[in-house]
Write a structure and sequence with these properties.
CATH topology of the largest domain in chain A: Cytochrome-c3 Hydrogenase, chain B
Radius of gyration of chain B: 17 Å
Helix content of chain A: 40-55%
Oligomer: heterodimer
Largest interface: A-B, 54 and 49 residues
CATH architecture of the largest domain in chain A: Orthogonal Bundle
Low-confidence stretches of chain A: none
Number of domains of chain A: 2
Strand order of the largest sheet of chain B: 2-1-3-5-7
Strand content of chain A: 15-25%
CATH superfamily of the largest domain in chain A: Cytochrome-c3 Hydrogenase, chain B
């Protein structure tokens, strides 16, 4: 069985790519890689396009190895990966929508992000005029007696992002859920092209608002990899502090919201208070509640002073006092557990196949956390556990979050304790030639991947892959045979990003 | 649970109302908003939030309006599930081309009198997404806007202040559609 390293040796190495290898391959190696993904030996980390090239990022988890394989397709065709490996499906539909590259053998020929509203087709590729006639989107057919359909969205009942869900139900039971997304597509990758690093990192921080730290972090690391920049220790540790604060705030929000969707508002009210306490601490320590635009290529823009440190410590002390009571309440409330246990199960096999990151993967037996598996500074120097469960239900996704809250608190303690002194950043050198970088960072939702090529001091191409790409499809599977009324609960336990996947 | 509920009974409320020096503005605002809302709408203002393409940052802060610190419902302001129940549309995001129809339809589904509040820097003119092939621009490109609340995202306080400003203008009948 060849390893990912063997695959890399087969291709033509692209020397300017950092830190993992990128190789240009031919069709046969491309298809071989797709086969290995289908057999479950490797995991798909990302699949993205350029006007006449497709790139595929692959993870060999056992070896903790990552590689990018690239296939030139001057005739705008390439062998579909998803005909063998379905997790690639939406990504290939997107590559066709944005670049006009045709995945040959793609099992689903429908557009994904393109709703025929842009006035242009293939906006990042050949750019041709839009179709004059808007064909209605064909949802997958359902056959059988006594089925009814429920159409939900794009404008939802709650304060959430837009997307369309088409349920087919038999009585109360969901037979099929089909998602249609793309409503928040902003063309961010198009705006990236030609952007200065300064503008690009701001855009990256606005891919998914709840993960603004994670995206700025991943973008900056990718740019630093491309430019061979070394970030000063203090900046590197402050970044981890920001990332853990973001994780805490989101996990509190999620735990509360999940309980709320099971009509248990009390925990939501208390978790809302804890979340607010983190945002206020962030504002007082870093000047912004969501900690936006603080991580930039080369370092961070804000220092942490003594007062900021003290505020964060006090906030954590309060959480240490309050949070266990809420966990105990969750654990001891049978009516709540009745809703979350055995609801919305994602089987471990499916989580592995889709390489689902974050709490969704880890609640279904997939022990993958970028901070551990592909450890980066300063996490390689910090003690923490990666909680994993196998049940894969809503309850397991709650518990993973609870455990991760505890781990994040412990991490912040260590960071505050050992925060090195020193500079906050280093200047990006002036480099004209093409340089490529890639980074994977653990956001609260899972692994955020950023790949970019810089030329003449600006971004030539940047791809930002949200963890939701590999999580949304699992929600379709998780809801099957559950009752319609449990959908909000399942959906909240996933909390996938719309904006992140719509990009 | 009893213990937790009991503790909540005897703990000082978290809700920001004590006119402490730094928080005087909020207390003032809270009272004013309550009066204005009552005058105009008989103690109730129903808001339908519409994400027309935002990054979700604004939604996070709109959510915060419901937490114990801001507790927006004490003013009679509440978020409703349907535009048909709403007085105000709170619209976020640069309006994407893929959301344009949905925003228009939501606007038309909202009964008169109605107001539109555009929330966040993107909602003004598309923000950093302006100029993209996939973005129409600010909210006013698609539906009439009565008020804009800046920020990326605006803080919950800024949003409370904005809603107050809207109510004051509405009281004068200046913007009634």
């Amino acid at each position: 069985m060849p390893s990912l390293t063997d695959l890399v040796l087969e291709g033509r190495s692209i020397p300017q790519h950092r830190p993992w290898p990128r190789v240009a391959v031919d069709t046969s190696i491309w298809e071989f890689a797709a086969g290995e993904l289908a057999h479950g030996r490797w995991s798909l980390l990302g699949l993205w396009g350029e006007p006449s090239t497709v790139h595929m990022a692959i993870l060999d988890q056992q070896a903790a190895a990552v590689a990018v394989v690239s296939l030139d397709c001057p005739d705008r065709r390439y062998p579909s990966v998803s005909q063998r490996h379905p997790p690639a499906m939406r990504l290939e539909r997107t590559i066709r929508d944005l670049f006009g590259l045709s995945p040959e053998g793609l099992p689903d020929g429908r557009p994904w992000l393109d709703h025929n509203r842009w006035g242009v087709r293939f906006p990042l590729g050949a750019r041709i005029d839009a179709l004059t006639q808007t064909a209605p989107y064909r949802f997958l057919p359902v056959e059988g007696e006594d089925m009814h359909q429920i159409a939900v969205g794009p404008v939802h009942a709650g304060i959430i992002e837009p997307g369309h869900f088409r349920f087919t139900a038999s009585g109360e039971t969901v037979v099929r859920l089909e998602q249609r997304l793309g409503y928040t597509h902003k063309g961010t990758e198009g705006l990236m092209t030609g952007a200065s690093l300064e503008r690009a990192v701001r855009l990256a921080g606005r891919v998914s608002g709840d993960s603004t730290v994670a995206y700025a972090y991943a973008f900056s690391k990718a740019a630093e990899a491309a430019l061979d920049l070394t970030v000063p220790d203090r900046a590197s540790w402050l970044r981890a502090l920001l990332a853990e604060l973001e994780r805490l705030a989101n996990h509190f929000g999620d735990i509360g919201a999940i309980c709320n969707d099971a009509s248990f508002a009390l925990i939501n009210a208390h978790c809302g208070v804890l979340r607010e306490s983190i945002l206020r601490a962030a504002h007082s320590a870093f000047g912004h509640r969501l900690m936006r635009d603080i991580i930039v290529p080369g370092g961070v823009t804000r220092n942490l002073d003594k007062a900021g440190k003290a505020t964060i410590r006090t906030t954590l002390d309060n959480i240490r006092l309050r949070f266990p009571e809420l966990v105990e309440l969750y654990d001891n409330t049978a009516s709540l557990q009745d809703r979350t246990v055995d609801t919305g199960i994602v089987k471990p096999q499916l989580a592995k196949r889709y390489a689902a990151g974050g709490y969704i993967g880890r609640a279904s037996g997939r022990s993958f956390d970028t901070r551990r598996t592909l450890a980066y500074a300063p996490y390689d120097n910090l003690r923490f556990e990666v909680p994993v469960l196998n049940e894969g239900d809503v309850n397991a996704r709650v518990w993973i979050r609870v455990r991760e809250v505890e781990q994040s608190i412990a991490l912040i303690d260590q960071i505050l304790e050992r925060l090195p002194d020193g500079a906050l950043g280093t200047h990006a050198g002036d480099r004209r030639e093409a340089r490529e970088g890639m980074a994977i960072v653990e956001g609260f939702r899972g692994d955020v991947l950023v790949w970019l090529r810089l030329r003449d001091g600006v971004v030539e191409r940047c791809h930002l892959r949200d963890p939701s790409w590999f999580q949304w499809p699992l929600l379709e599977a998780a809801i099957e045979n559950n009752i319609v009324a449990d959908f909000p609960l399942c959906n909240k336990s996933f909390n996938c990003s719309y904006s992140g996947q719509d990009i | 649970m009893r213990k937790l509920l009991f503790e909540s009974l005897i703990r000082r409320p978290l809700t920001e109302r004590a006119p402490a020096a730094g928080d005087a503005a909020l207390a003032e605002l809270a009272a004013a908003l309550g009066d204005a809302a009552r005058r105009r709408l008989g103690r109730s203002l129903s808001i339908r939030e519409v994400d027309a393409g935002s990054c979700n940052g604004c939604e996070l802060e709109i959510h915060a309006l419901n937490n114990a610190y801001y507790d927006v419902e004490r003013f009679g302001i509440r978020f409703v599930a349907s535009p048909r129940h709403a007085d105000v549309l709170l619209v976020t995001g640069p309006v994407t081309r893929n959301m344009r129809d949905a925003l228009e339809r939501t606007y038309h589904a909202t009964p008169n009198p109605k107001w539109v509040v555009a929330v966040g820097d993107c909602a003004r003119d598309g923000g950093c997404f302006a100029g993209s092939y996939a973005v129409v621009g600010g909210v006013r490109e698609v539906v009439p806007v009565d008020l804009h609340i800046p920020g990326c995202p605006p803080t919950p306080m800024a949003m409370l202040q904005g809603l107050l400003a809207l109510l004051e203008r509405a009281d004068k009948g200046a913007t009634a559609p």
